[in-house]
Amino acid sequence: MNRNGLYLVIALLAVAVVGLGIYVYQEETKPGVEIKIGQDGVSVQEN
Questions:
Q1: pLDDT tens, position by position, for the chain (47 residues)?
Q2: Is residue 31 within 8 Å of 44, Cβ to Cβ?
Q3: What are phi and psi of 32, to 5 degrees?
Q4: Backbone phi and psi for residue 33, each to the nearest 5 degrees, phi listed first
Q5: Residue 39 φ then ψ, to 5°
Q6: Does pTM surpass 0.90?
Q7: Whole-angstrom distance, CA of residue 6 vs CA of residue 29
C-alpha cells in the first residue's frame, strides 16, 4: 500500500472515531424519563 492510501485509511478511522464519539455524547445527554418499579413502589425520574 502506498503512502497516500495509508493516509486515507488513517483519516477514515479518525472520522469514524469522532463520529462515534459525537453519537455517544448525544445519546448520553438527551433528556428522557426513567421509570422504576420496585418494592418501594413506582418512581419516575427525569434525566
A1: 689 999 999 999 999 999 999 999 988 887 778 888 888 888 888 76
A2: no
A3: -165, 175
A4: -120, 135
A5: -65, -25
A6: no
A7: 35
